[in-house]
Amino acid sequence: MAIVFIPDRQVVITEVEEIKRYLAGSGIEYDAWDLVPLDHDASSATILDAYRDKLDEVKAKGGYTSVDIVDVQPSTPGLDEMLARFNREHWHDEDEVRFTVGGRGLFHIHPADSAVVAIEVRPGDMIRVPRGTRHWFNLCNTREIKAIRFFQDKSGWTPQYTDSAEDAKYEPVCLGASYFPHSR
Ligand SMILES: [Fe+2]
């Protein structure tokens, strides 16, 4: 399950309902889905089929017309170039909706009127970052993530960079709950 960290307040949230509540305050939807047991090398079609009902629900609710799978590993060609597109503060004309199936990743969200929040996503985590929300993304040290992506229109997903340098103020490190002395 996800770990939410508010760096400026040194607050960590690990309880699902509290994560939902906190993120909803900034317009971010979070949900924790039950994982379907699948082989590590299950095909994209098998993964999409395993979550078909849940995916259809999300697609109908958000008007998403297509889904695909992003599967990134340390050996993925051009990985650094790919990451460099998303690790600077940006926003999209399209919601960024991700269900993590494997690996881990770190979203930083920069809400309009509250503190920057880091969300470490893990398998089972469903997150919807609404269009126009400032954010950036890093991989964890394993440099591995597999996620289902939802699209309304892929042309809207081009990053619009803010060049605020806000991202440079926050360490892009996934640490896990045990690191934090004041987890709640
Ligand atoms: Fe993004």
Which structural class matches the secondary elements?
A: alpha+beta
User: What profile does the largest beta sheet have?
Assistant: 5 strands, antiparallel
Main sheet strand line-up: 2-1-8-7-10
The parts where pLDDT drops under 50 for at least 5 residues are 177-184
Give the helix tally.
4
Strand % is 25-35%
Shape: globular
Mean pLDDT over the full residue set: 92
CA-to-CA gap between the ends?
Answer: 14 Å
- How large is the radius of gyration? 16 Å
Number of strands: 12
Sequence of secondary-structure elements: EEHEHHEHEEEEEEEE
Fraction of residues in helices? 10-25%
Bound molecules: fe (ii) ion
Q: What does it look like?
A:
By secondary structure, the chain is α+β, with helices and mostly antiparallel strands. Helices cover 19% and strands 32% of the residues. It has 4 helices and 12 strands. The protein is globular. It binds fe (ii) ion (FE2). Fe (ii) ion binds at residues 86, 90, 92, 96, 135, 137, 159.
